[in-house]
Write a structure and sequence with these properties.
Radius of gyration: 51 Å
Strand content: 5-15%
Number of helices: 63
Oligomer: single chain
Strand order of the largest sheet: 26-25-24-23-29-28-27
């Protein structure tokens, strides 16, 4: 029973306490005055009566009512019903109050001018019960009695109100009082009616119906709910959904459950209360346990910044003050919005549930939605009445919670039954069985306070049950079957709604309300209303006392509480499995696990080993893991299973694998199942020493998680306590056993039975049971202290480290720093990274384990009620337990070290090169897969990686050799290696191997040969060894000096020797290099060397000044020493020898080939040559990085050169490097200019110049130099040097070669494309000068807008294909184009009479190349596989911009080629002249001159342009310690890639194959040869390596030059040779350069795991020999398959699947060997074949008119067809090479060219073949052969008549060339012709060689054929 109202108060406006205009309230009267004992009076009510503040108002406002909720200190809620009305204040009171204020403030009173002011007054009821309507009626009645001055005394009404008592629950109370009204009864007895119902023996109806009356002629019914555990919501839930909408309320619902802060805003107080009540109602069965204030007064707004969660309502009047709350979710009830701040993340319901809930809610709130689209909607679908709707919505949420919490009772652990039940919830198991362990929402709910309350309230097994218990126990099956069908669910929800409605309104029929309201009159009359009177407190108190006395004498009301056993519902396990959420573990997988375990225990180790990988893979699935624990369990006898070493090893591996994928929560209970097993399996190590499995499975997160141990402990305690009571019951009730139905009694059922019996037991029995339970818990605690010490103490306790684990909760990641003790300082949720040991230094493992166990023991013992004595006993035992365990462990550790190591695969020794030596012996490692998926088996094929083997460090390479860990691929050998010199990045990593769960140290090594070796050191490798390995590697990678590289140390002993005294074999060479160096040093010494002084640059030099400062090079000052300028006559003899050596250099041979100067009779010049070979740099004094001999114009003396060179960076002045043999145009190279020089004289003459006159003279000399170059060109001298415009034009027009005219537009377009400018009006210049620039635009300009014009210009023969010539080259072309860096050439003034022109382009910076290359490596060889869509190969490739860089280099090169081809000379003058310049110049020569596309030519090109002209190989390749910081920049690789792109487009123009380019790309970084070491010829001479290649050969097998090596190899094998080589005479190549035309070089992508890189041929040969030696036994096993599986990433394709020609050559060799002949060299064989082929072609082809026409019409930029086709010709099978016709402008046939038809026969066209006319004809065979039907095809395009066996046949049987056909005539049938065919069906085809006889099906058909052939002939 409860009082309806605890307190009644009257609160009024306090006139005395106004502060700055803000009023306050005060309590006028309060009844009763004394506090009730059971409910103290709540403080601060006056604030809540006027939540927005107490204020006076000028006009009366309507009376208002709302209910505020106050929570007291015991967290009980008080409902305060406030009824507020407004009373007029008389002026007197007001003035009094104001006067008193003025006295204090000394100010004029601001008198309120209105006639009257109104003050609020509130009547307040305080109650524990929430009956809003009853309160509204009662307070309204009191007000009515006052206003309408009814005859009832107010005291009576109040007294009755305060003494009214009603039951809390159990149906409706209509209290039929014996009296109608209390007026007629003496006041003292006014309470008697109250007690009438309490008399026992009243009628039933009277018991359940209760009316109350306050004695003012009123009567109302109070309906108390049947079950008070269900909340009463009225219509508040439905209102809330109407105000906010479904999604918003669901958001708030989830936010409240996951403990966020929620704030409601509304201008109505009652709505705030209702909304909060509604939100709490839908949370049932969870109860909200945080701050709950539905109406918060404005003065208390700072409460909103509390850190704890809350649900609060605030009047929208205070909206502005809620704006700065950052973490509060604001729901605006009036506007219907919910605002969620950015920093708040609400976890929503898990997926199918969220959707289903939304659907159900919309079916209730908007039933018309479903039928909105129906053609014949049902007549009416009104949504239910609001109060019914309210219950339906609550029904949905009940249904939702039943689904969320189904089976929760199966996860309760009951740890104590007596004296009262102690229950814990096993969260991990619950989540695991629901397969929701990842679900954010459920995790948060289960961790929340509300759920903790839910468990403690609903956990006990013996209590009263309610609707929710019933739902969970009995409806789960129904819910699961219906969940997918909304209408069935809806019916269920409606049933629930009905129950809820009935609970709130048990007697809906009874409605006998009779409450008076104030009359209209009294509400409207505002004047002269009396004040609310003061009540007589004595009278009211009398009422109260009287009632209290009555209650005391009345007999106590005993309401029977219906307790019962709480049913648990169906267990969880089955529910989930049926949903199929369990991971797909096929029965086959479980079978594999079972078999493997059986094999292990039957000691069939080989079988087990085969199954192991499959088992480890299967163990990723939950079912397999559970299966494993069950299987292992069966092999344990009496808690012990002794194994031998190998069994033990396998079992431990399986356990580790099983645990590895468990999270630290262990939601599937797998660690729990393994816990007893790890203490059971063991092996004998020695006398009395046993090692248990736990010492090998410690490295898992789960063991360091407190929650895991707690859950384990509780479940064990529960089992023991259950056993305890089962025993006692078994003794008493064995006969009931059959009736139990065989189902095990669960612990909860037992507990509930015990709780029921508890009151019936005697005191002794009770005490005995409590004691038994307590000792059970205590013994378990001891047991667990032991278990925990087993799993937490590492085997080697001497090491001061605990389990290496990553931060808790982050299981998968393997952190690099091991948190030293995740146990000591960390605990599950409150994991604190700072927490190390409290005193890390002194503490050790034992202490931290003791601390951890102590914490555990404290927690569980307190929770399970262990006595303090027992707890103390435990604390003293724990350190002893740990100490004892450490001692046994020491023995085990000692013994385990003596164990023979597990049989690991044998380490395979790598084969080494001659001269290569091991620096470190094999270290056992695992090769881990990286981001390339081919080898891991992910893309199909066997998993070759991970592999187990060893890493070897030699003087040359880093080699891994091993075998795959997967035994199915175990017989393969995996090799990965790269030259140590190509290492670009080394990074330490830590790796978890899939087999043993230890985190290994590892290294990731990346090489610029596009290889990545990711290794994890085996545990047998000591970590200091790994460190030594790294140091050695660094030493080898960056030697102190270039002489430390492998190319020099090869064959010496392993120590890196820097002295090289042994090289004195060839004395003359030695002196030569010494002399050279001495002289160079001397000259430099004589000139005084000055650092450039900084002088601020003049304004026009600014742009280029920057680059000059970057270099800060040393400049040689003016005083040139005379002796260094000696002519040949004064060269000393030792120098002469030097010179002859220099002359011998390859460059000179090339210069002579190009006719650029001769070195006849010493060094005298032949005057008529335009160029000479200058020896000015023979001592390397003019320019360190240039070669000794240079080609300069004849007319320029050496002195001038010495002056000019200072204008250029690094003194690299322009020199000629190539001349076009046809146009005689020359190609020059130089570095970019310094600030002064050419740029200076491009400036306008009157520009302010601070350059001294000496600079002017230099620039004049420079001009002279350029002029001399121009004069050397024949086209210039022809025009006899006239500098007039007409002169230029005439020269231009009279250019001798007619093909120039055709070429003109091509260049126009090209220029335009390279410059990227738009077409301007002819004659005007765009801002960037005539050329604009090659755009850089931030990103590289990869895509050019002018593709169209370029192609147009290239392809069309008319001149208008490009921009008009006038625009292109201001009416004439320049004689010399200078390709310069845009940055340097700004502001140049154009002079229309100069004969050279500057083309500004933007070059790629070296830094750009370096960064691009890094990104390219990461794209081609990623270090880890990723699923990120932004990291796909193509995306990374694009971001690397490598292709864009290639495009740019190629683009410039093609431009230069075009310019040279039109007869202009070009000078490439970029950066320092040794990177981009070298690339461009070499590519230009390669494209223009076929010689450089042969072996000799390419070698010469590289030696000349790259080596002699000083490309800084050592610096760019970071080959020594000094250049380490500059990083690896593959300029040369970029050049090779460009060559590869050209090779792809012109496969027939190159003598060398793609492999040749890859070979160079590999060895230019490998440091195996000396060719690519050092930065210039000067440095090579200084070291004495430049000429020794020519001199002695110390050891013939060691090649010091890569070229010699290639030559030797080329003689043996055709690997470098391109079979398609079939060059055109003087063919100039013009490749397409757009990115879309470029391909990624396969050098970057391919790898051969069988043998490592294929570029060291000695290794290849050896491995093959080893392989051949083994199979010598005669094979008697019958026919053996010759098939061989080829894996793309494992086998070397070129070797296993050679191309046809290589195969034939190999077969030929082996056949010759078999016959005992001396096999001839492959090259000779090949050349013979080719010659015979050529003669055949000549015999066959007689050029005819038609063929030449075809050739000339083919004026396209022609590509050679790729591929070699073996063609069957009449003469016999031969290999025919595809030849190409160049677009030739003449229309005469070219002699010696094969006819078009033979050309065609070589390429199969990619489209389907052109068939102009086809059909069946009978053809008579050659002499004496019969007629045969054949399928004939007439092909106009190829100009042939082909025939096939049948129509479907692809192989052509024969071809009749139409070019050879002379006539087609009707024929006559000959012998053996087909019968029954008319005569006119025959016709003959006469060719130059023979006559063909044909026969068609009929005459018509024959006529058609004849016409078609005829038309073909005439067309041609």
């Amino acid at each position: 029973m409860a009082r309806l109202a605890d307190y009644f108060l009257v609160v009024t406006y306090d006139l005395d306490k106004r502060v700055e205009g803000e009023g306050q309230g005060r309590i006028l009267q309060r009844f009763p005055e004394k506090d009730w004992e059971d409910s103290p009076f709540p403080q601060g009510i006056e604030l809540f009566c006027q939540p927005s503040g107490w204020q006076l108002v000028p006009e009366r406002q309507p009376a208002s009512f709302f209910v505020a909720v106050l929570t007291d200190i015991n967290s009980d809620r008080n409902y305060c019903a406030c009824f507020t009305f407004w009373e007029g204040l008389d002026r007197l009171q007001l003035q009094k109050a104001e006067a008193s204020e003025v006295d204090e403030v000394d100010e004029e009173p601001a008198v309120v001018q209105s006639a009257q002011v109104f003050a609020p007054k509130s009547l307040v009821l305080v109650s524990r019960l929430d009956y809003t309507e009853v309160f509204r009626n009662c307070l309204g009645l009191i007000y009515t009695v006052h206003v309408d001055s009814l005859s009832v005394p107010l005291e009576t009404v109040v007294g009755n109100l305060l003494t009214c008592i009603i039951p809390i629950a159990g149906g409706s109370q209509i209290n039929e009082s014996p009296v109608c009204s209390l007026e007629k009864v003496p006041q003292v007895l006014a309470c008697d009616w109250l007690l009438a119902c309490l008399q026992p023996g009243q009628e039933e109806r009277e018991e359940s119906l209760r009316t109350i009356t306050l004695g003012a002629g009123d009567r109302q019914v109070i309906q108390t709910p049947i079950d008070d555990s269900l909340p009463v919501s009225g219509t508040s839930v439905a209102q809330l959904f109407r105000q906010l909408g479904i999604i918003n309320v669901l958001c708030l619902f989830c936010a409240a459950l996951t403990e966020h802060k929620i704030l409601f805003l509304s201008s109505s107080y009652q709505r705030l209360t209702d909304a909060c009540r509604g939100l709490l109602s839908i949370m049932f069965p969870l109860k909200y346990s945080f701050t709950y204030v539905p109406i918060l007064p404005g003065k208390l707004l700072e409460v909103l910044s509390t850190p704890t969660p809350f649900i609060i309502g605030v009047n929208s009047f205070f909206r502005s003050e809620t704006q700065e709350l950052l973490d509060v979710i604001i729901a605006d009830l009036d506007g219907g919005t919910v605002t969620i701040p950015e920093c708040v993340h609400i976890s929503l319901l898990p997926e199918p549930l969220l959707q289903q809930t939304q659907t159900l809610l919309s079916m209730i709130l908007d039933p018309e939605l479903e039928i909105a689209d129906q053609a014949f909607p049902p007549p009416s679908t009104q949504s239910s009445a609001l109060k019914i709707q309210d219950k339906e919505i609550r029904g949905v949420f009940l249904w939702l919670f039943a689904r969320l919490f189904q089976g929760y009772r199966w996860c309760l652990h009951i740890i104590r039954i007596h004296p009262e039940p102690v229950i814990r919830f096993h969260k991990a198991a619950f989540l695991g069985q629901r397969a929701l362990s990842e679900d954010d929402f459920l995790m948060k709910v289960l961790d929340g306070m509300a759920f903790a309350g839910f468990v403690s309230e609903r956990g006990p097994p013996y209590r009263a049950t309610d609707l929710f218990d019933d739902l969970i126990a009995n409806q789960v099956e129904r819910i699961r079957q219906e969940e997918t069908c909304p209408h069935k669910v809806m019916n269920h929800v409606k049933e629930l709604a009905e129950q809820l409605f009935k609970n709130e309104n048990p007697y809906p029929a009874v409605a006998m309300h009779k409450v008076q309201r104030p009359s209209e009159k009294s509400q409207t009359t505002t004047q002269n209303q009396t004040q609310f009177p003061a009540l007589d407190d004595v009278v009211v108190q009398l009422f109260i006392d009287h009632a209290a006395a009555k209650l005391k004498t009345a007999p106590p009301v005993v309401k029977v509480e219906l307790k019962g056993m709480v049913p648990s519902g169906p267990p969880l396990g089955d529910t989930v499995d049926r949903n199929g959420i369990v991971m797909a573990n096929s029965a086959r997988r479980l079978e594999v696990v079972r078999n493997c375990i059986t094999y292990i225990f039957e000691n069939k180790m080989l079988e087990a080993k085969k199954l192991m990988p499959a088992v480890l893979r299967a163990l990723k699935g939950r079912a397999a893991r559970i299966c494993l624990t069950q299987e292992l369990n069966q092999h344990v006898l009496q808690n012990r299973a002794v194994l031998d070493d190998q069994q033990f090893d396998y079992i431990v591996r399986m356990m580790n694998c099983t645990l590895q994928d468990c999270s630290h929560m262990d939601e599937h209970g797998i660690a729990a199942n393994l816990l007893p097993l790890v203490t059971a399996f063991c092996r004998k190590l020695g006398a009395g020493i046993t090692q248990f499995a736990y010492s090998c499975v410690q490295e898992h997160m789960v063991w360091t998680t407190m929650q895991f141990w707690e859950a384990m402990f509780y479940s064990d305690v529960q089992n023991h306590i259950r056993a305890l009571y089962l025993e006692t019951e078994d003794n008493s009730s064995e006969q009931q056993d059959g009736s139990a139905g065989g189902r095990e009694i669960s612990a909860l059922d037992l507990a509930s039975e015990q709780n029921r019996l508890w009151p019936t037991l005697s005191k002794e029995m009770q005490a005995e049971r409590v004691q038994k339970e307590e000792s059970t818990v205590f013994s378990q605690a001891i047991h667990y202290a032991n278990r925990m010490s087993y799993l937490l103490l590492p085997l080697d306790t001497s090491k001061n480290r605990l389990l290496r684990t990553a931060g808790l909760g982050d299981v998968e990641s393997v952190s690099n720093s091991y948190v030293t003790n995740s146990i000591a300082g960390s605990m599950a949720e409150s994991y604190d990274t700072e927490s190390g040991f409290e005193d890390a230094e002194s503490s050790d493992v034992a202490n931290s384990v003791v601390r951890f166990i102590n914490r555990f023991v404290d927690k569980v013992c307190n929770e399970s009620g262990v006595t303090n004595e027992h707890l103390k006993a435990l604390h003293t035992m724990i350190p002893d337990i740990v100490q004892m365990h450490i001692e046994t462990l020491d023995a085990v550790h000692r013994e385990s070290k003596r164990l023979p190591p597990i049989q690991k695969p044998k380490l395979l020794r790598p084969t080494l090169l001659p001269g290569e030596e091991l620096v470190m012996d094999a270290m056992r490692v695992h090769l881990i897969p990286d981001g390339r998926e081919e080898a891991t088996g992910l893309m199909g094929g066997p998993p070759l990686l991970p592999a187990e083997g060893a890493i070897f460090l030699t003087t040359y390479r880093l080699i891994f050799r091993g075998t795959p860990t997967d035994p199915l691929v175990g017989e393969q050998v995996v090799t990965r290696s790269f030259p140590i010199a190509s290492l670009t990045k080394e990074k330490r990593i830590s790796v978890t191997l899939p087999m043993d769960q230890f985190v290994q140290e590892g290294l990731q090594l990346r090489s610029c040969t596009f290889q990545l070796i990711k290794i994890a050191f085996d545990e047998e490798v000591a970590s200091d060894l790994a460190e030594v390995f790294r140091k050695h590697m660094h030493k080898l990678r960056y030697p102190q000096h270039v002489q430390g590289t492998f190319a020099f140390t090869m064959g010496q002993c392993g120590k890196l020797v820097v002295e090289h005294k042994t090289k004195d074999k060839n004395q003359s060479l030695k002196t030569l290099s010494k002399n050279l160096v001495k002289t160079a040093k001397r000259t430099i010494g004589r000139q005084y060397v000055t650092r450039k002084k900084y002088s601020p640059p003049t304004w026009e030099n600014r742009s280029s000044f920057q680059s000059e400062m970057d270099e800060d090079e040393i400049s040689v000052s003016e005083e040139v020493d005379q002796s260094s300028l000696t002519l040949s006559s004064t060269i000393r003899s030792s120098d002469r020898q030097t010179m002859s050596n220099v002359v011998e250099r390859a460059c000179c041979r090339d210069y002579q080939r190009l006719g650029l100067g001769t070195l006849s009779n010493s060094l005298t010049r032949s005057k008529n040559e335009p160029f000479r070979i200058s020896t000015v740099n023979r001592m390397y004094t003019v320019c360190r990085s240039y070669p000794g001999l240079l080609i300069v114009p004849q007319s320029i003396p050496d002195t001038t050169i010495q002056r000019i060179c200072r204008c250029y960076r690094q003194n690299r002045f322009p020199v000629v490097c190539w001349r076009n043999s046809r146009t005689k145009a020359v190609l020059l190279r130089s570095a970019g200019l310094h600030a002064k020089g050419v740029v200076g004289f491009f400036k306008s003459p009157n520009a302010p110049s601070s350059v001294p006159s000496q600079a002017d003279s230099t620039s004049l000399e420079q001009e002279k130099y350029l002029q001399a170059i121009i004069s050397s060109m024949p086209s210039y001298s022809e025009s006899s040097g006239r500098n007039t415009l007409s002169g230029f034009t005439s020269t231009h027009m009279s250019t001798s070669d007619s093909s120039d005219k055709l070429r003109q537009p091509k260049i126009g377009a090209l220029m335009k494309q390279v410059m990227g400018t738009k077409e301007d009006v002819p004659g005007t210049f765009s801002r960037g000068g005539k050329w604009g620039s090659i755009r850089g635009s931030g990103r590289l300009s990869a895509y050019n807008p002018d593709v169209g014009t370029r192609l147009a210009g290239k392809e069309s023969p008319q001149s208008n294909g490009g921009p008009s010539e006038a625009l292109f080259l201001r009416q004439q072309k320049a004689y010399l184009y200078i390709i310069g860096d845009k940055a340097q050439l700004k502001g140049g003034k154009q002079d229309s009479f100069q004969q050279w022109e500057v083309v500004p382009i933007e070059v790629c910076d070296v830094r750009q190349v370096k960064n691009s290359f890094k990104k390219l490596m990461k794209a081609c060889v990623p270090s880890s596989s990723t699923s990120d869509p932004n990291m796909t190969f193509l995306r990374c490739l694009e971001e690397s911009e490598w292709m864009a860089l290639l495009h740019r280099v190629l683009q410039v090169s093609v431009l230069v080629v075009e310019l040279l081809d039109t007869g202009s000379s070009v000078m490439v003058s970029l950066e320092d002249g040794w990177d981009v310049t070298t690339q461009v110049v070499s590519l230009v020569q390669l494209l223009s001159d076929p010689y450089y596309r042969t072996f000799d030519g390419f070698r010469l090109l590289v030696e000349k342009e790259w080596l002699s002209f000083g490309h800084r190989f050592s610096h760019r390749g970071a080959q020594t310690l000094s250049s380490q910081s500059s990083g690896f920049t593959p300029v040369f690789l970029q050049f090779l890639d460009c060559v590869h792109q050209i090779h792809l487009q012109f496969p027939m123009e190159f003598e060398f194959s793609q492999y040749y380019l890859k070979f160079l790309a590999y060895h230019y970084v490998s440091n195996r040869f000396r060719t690519f070491l050092l930065d210039s010829d000067y440095e090579r001479i200084e070291l004495g390596v430049l000429y020794e290649e020519k001199g002695e050969r110390k050891s013939p097998q060691v090649c010091k030059s890569v070229w010699d090596y290639i030559d030797r190899l080329n003689k043996k094998t055709p690997i470098f040779y391109n079979y398609m080589f079939s060059p055109e005479d003087e063919e100039v190549l013009r490749p397409y350069t757009f990115i879309s035309n470029l391909k990624v070089w396969d050098f970057y992508m391919e790898e051969t795991l069988s043998e490592g890189p294929s570029y060291d041929w000695e290794l290849r040969g050896r491995q093959e020999r080893v392989a051949e030696e083994t199979p010598e036994k005669p094979d008697s096993s019958g026919p053996k398959s010759h098939r061989h599986i080829v894996w793309p990433c494992y086998d070397s394709l070129s070797k296993v699947v050679p191309d046809a020609i290589t195969k034939l050559l190999q077969d030929l060799q082996s056949l010759e060997a078999e016959l005992g002949q001396t096999s001839e060299k492959w090259k000779d064989t090949w050349d013979k074949m080719k010659n015979s082929q050529k003669t055949e072609i000549k015999l066959e082809s007689k050029p005819s008119f038609s063929s030449s026409l075809l050739m000339s019409s083919n004026l396209s930029h022609q590509r050679r067809s790729q591929g070699v086709y073996l063609q069957e010709s009449c003469v016999g099978s031969s290999i025919n090479l595809a030849l190409d016709c160049e677009a030739s402008a003449t229309s005469t046939p070219v002699p010696g060219r094969p006819s078009t038809s033979t050309l065609y026969s070589q390429f199969q066209s990619t489209e389907s073949e052109n068939r102009s006319f086809e059909g069946i004809l009978f053809k008579k065979g050659a002499l004496l052969k019969p007629w045969k039907p054949r399928w004939f095809v007439l092909d106009k395009t190829k100009h042939q008549l082909r025939y096939y066996e049948t129509r479907q046949d692809k192989e052509c049987k024969g071809v009749i060339e139409l070019a050879d056909v002379e006539s087609v005539i009707p024929g006559t049938p000959t012998m053996g012709a087909p019968k029954n065919i008319e005569e006119k069906a025959f016709f003959d085809l006469k060719t130059t060689k023979r006559v063909y006889n044909f026969c068609a099906q009929d005459s018509l058909n024959a006529q058609l054929w004849m016409d078609s052939v005829q038309s073909c002939l005439s067309d041609a």
